[in-house]
What we know:
The chain is α/β, with parallel strands linked by helices. Helices cover 37% and strands 18% of the residues. The protein has 20 helices and 17 strands. The strands form 3 sheets. Strands 10, 11, 12, 13, 14, 15, 16 and 17 form an 8-stranded mixed sheet that branches. Strand 11 and strand 12 form a beta hairpin. The longest helix is centred in the first third of the chain and has 17 residues.
Amino acid sequence: MEYNLQKQHDKGKLHAIERINALCDKDSFCEIYSGVRHNCTSFGMEKKDIPYDGVITGFGKINGRKVAVYAQDFTVQGGSLGLMHGEKIAEIIDLAIKAKCPVIGINDSGGARIQEGVDALCGYGDLFYQNVRASGAVPQISIIAGPCAGGAVYSPGLTDFIFAVDKISQLFITGPKVVKSVMFMDISAEDLGGAAIHSQKSGVAHFRAQSENECYEQVRKLLEYIPHYYGDELVKAAKFKFDEHKKEKDILSVIPENPRGGYDIRKIIEDVSDDETFFEVSKEFAVNCVTGFAKIQGRSVGIVANNPGGIGGVLDCDASDKIARHVRYCNSFNIPLLTFVDVPGFIPGPQEEQKGIIRHGAKVIYAYSEATVPKITVIVRKAYGGAYIAMCSKHLGADFVFAWPKAEIAVMGAEGAIGILYAKELSDPNKAAEVAQKSEEYKTEIMTPKIAARRGYISEVISPEQTRARVVQSLEFLENKVSADCVCKKHGNLPM
């Protein structure tokens, strides 16, 4: 097969076949359905020969394990999707489900092939249907390696992980020309739907790379952390390293003396994980929380954490969506969940209320409650109000909840509580000493983790340097966890 490589190279992009070969292990890719052609006879299409109908499909190996792959070829009819093009992609997804392997799509397309009319829409519909069938059965990964507009965005939107590349990736429902004609607004494709926009602001893209080759390395790395099909055993490294002495020392110095001080929760995650194994997902979006994967004793674990280094670690709409989606993905593929809690609450104010913080926050509660995988929670500092409940508390089915000695667990912080309970006394200068005494009593008698421990809401109060050992022991104990709670129903109604 001859490919028009130079046309892509002139744009600073790899050709579809080069992308597949860069992604897969050397000489492992096997193309199928290369002889497929479009079957449209309208608008002069009968005279066109569209090789492999603009999309290369097949299977290969990544890190020695099988994968299904497809790559749209922008040099062939602009990578546009017609009926047979869509059918080829739908077929490779269906084969991935049957063969129990991940499916990776490299998207580079001008969208629906207008000349094919409703047949092109049929191609998209069949593709979307297979995306939904595959969800939770095999991992679905989308690489945006060019334009992705209109209906074309919904297939990536239905997949588990989206990878974007700077100055190459573009995703939007309607392009700049349509925006200008309808809204009279001049905007570039990059500002409308470039990699940075979707990694930082919309949260549509989970990973961003500076080059195509870096992107393919990210995909290969992700596949080292996740099961390759539902029922697959957790990915486990043959060897692992953990610098016990260094990390036990580090973890003691992470949280600042100032109870309101910010810090990067990733330091605690890294101090508990095997050396250099934390692999973050959606790093640039909703920075008040952190999600990703790590290895603990060589075995993959899903990580969720509040991040006080980003707007205090509060739960807002974006953070809630980010956490809930990651929890549901891990539960779908039986990846244990490790949650680090330092949360002052759900964010207050009209802006988030109008965006629907109630609806979005409910997703976190739903996702954790629904999850049947091993769930381990570590409260490292604050756990206030509804956010305490939502962040995988005992009440939502956490198997083990550990708290550090200085953790604060309450409806709200001391200052807010005293302001409500002793509002009259606060206005009287003569009662300042009494107010100060009540504030101290609230801290020592209400907020202490010992109260929660007495009620059985905390499995154990542990010192920071004990965290790794407790997590390891808990994961080992829960390795063969089986959920006994089975309510007869078709499915729940997830807050959307």
